[in-house]
Amino acid sequence: xxxxxxxxxxxxxxxxxxxxxxxxxxxxxxxxxxxxxxxxxxxxxxxxxxxxxxxxxxxxxxxxxxxxxxxxxxxxxxxxxxxxxxxxxxxxxxxxxxxxxxxxxxxxxxxxxxxxxxxxxxxxxxxxxxxxxxxxxxxxxxxxxxxxxxxxxxxxxxxxxxxxxxxxxxxxxxxxxxxxxxxxxxxxxxxxxxxxxxxxxxxxxxxxxxxxxx
Length: 214
Known about the structure:
By secondary structure, the chain is mainly α.
């Protein structure tokens, strides 16, 4: 315990272990959970005790009962697949770990030395991320010199299985467009008029003449 940062508390550190199981508590059957607890909790211990060994046994038994009730009443969460960052490196993992460690130390003891160490670690972590992204982008461009890079970028940024919804734009007759191509044509005709000489006013004719002379 001598190497741990000061806890600023009146008791020693409380350490515990966590498993990697994630439960979907939104689908918990609370009737099943409550029945298991109520039916078995009385058999754990009868009277309070001050003996340390007996207290530890009671805590372990209660923890096991809660775990049993949870396993039988709550489904395990499938979770969502983690997104992989191709630019992430093991060096960045170490920088992040060091930054988080210094952050915990600073929160427990906000001395000037700890603050300086935390700022330097944060700076190095951000700089490492920037350099890793830049290096990966340069490698990405170098690997595909003769190919269309936008095709790959489009696949990375957009789900290839997604269905492109048609863009509905109201036409002059009040109807709606049914495709992206049709919507594009309507918008182009609306905001970028065709250069039709037959619709020119006198002013337009004068402007054309000045441009020809220019």
